[in-house]
Design a protein that fits this description.
Layout (H helix, E strand, L loop, with lengths): L2 H31 L15 H26 L1 H8 L2 H31 L1 H5 L3 H23 L3 H17 L6 H4 L3 H16 L29 H5 L3
């Protein structure tokens, strides 16, 4: 077996399962042993203006890009049919690039905020920096692929999606990835590293997002005392 083949097997046949196993095991153990650490540990109360202008574009940009990847993973054939028309392909690529740029603006703003604001810098942990750097690399990689290796939605649907489905079936078909450019391979490997590191970070809070709040009944609050009189008490 050549060194190239071994590296491909290691990064695209072994690493994905290690990352997923660590994600599941650590997330469960952390929830059971350190449940109160399942929090975003938001520093918004320390500084809000820059927090807003970094978090909002980052979340919207990243969510749309991830949704696009997920859709291409689920229905790759439909994506290729959509892309068969040049104008539709162009619209999809430009839209994804725009939201990728939004995510980049957000992550750069978040990193600058952690450096420039003394209060935020104090509460920033090494894990925060590692996560921010990994996300920055991933976003830059995605934008680079979109700009310099056009029609990424098509090659994702035709190559990356079958590869990911092969992982789901526990039969990794590495040739789908091994022939891709090094830049694309690094983008994929970094995604697995983020998944592996995810349960050690504050991002883990999204696993327990209180979605039931949207369905619960409205709460009625009644005041049973004179608030004006209470405020005037010295």
């Amino acid at each position: 077996m050549s060194n190239t083949s071994f590296i491909n097997i290691l990064f695209f046949g072994v690493l994905p399962y290690i990352a997923l196993a660590m994600f599941i095991i650590v997330a469960i153990l952390r929830y059971r042993l350190q449940r109160f650490s399942y929090s975003s540990l938001s520093s918004q109360f320390l500084e809000n203006r820059m927090h807003f202008w970094s978090v909002v574009p980052f979340h919207y940009g990243l969510l749309v890009v991830l949704l696009g990847h997920f859709v291409a993973f689920l229905i790759p054939r439909q994506i290729l049919i959509w892309n068969s028309h040049p104008m539709r392909l162009f619209i999809l690529e430009i839209t994804t690039l725009i939201f990728g740029m939004l995510a980049l603006i957000g992550i750069v703003g978040a990193m600058f905020r952690r450096i420039s604001n003394a209060k935020v810098a104090i509460v920033t942990s090494p894990a925060d920096w590692v996560l921010n750097i990994l996300l920055f690399i991933q976003i830059i990689g995605g934008i680079g692929i979109a700009v310099f290796m056009s029609w990424g939605s098509s090659w994702f649907a035709s190559s990356a999606s079958p590869y990911l489905w092969s992982l789901v079936k526990f039969n990794p078909e590495i040739p789908y990835i091994s022939s891709m450019p090094l830049f694309v391979k690094l983008h994929i490997v970094n995604a697995f590293v983020i998944i592996l590191f995810f349960p050690f970070t504050r991002l883990v809070h999204i696993l327990v997002t209180p979605l039931h709040y949207f369905a619960r009944k409205m709460q009625v609050v009644r005041w049973n005392y004179d608030r004006g009189a209470i405020r005037n008490v010295e």
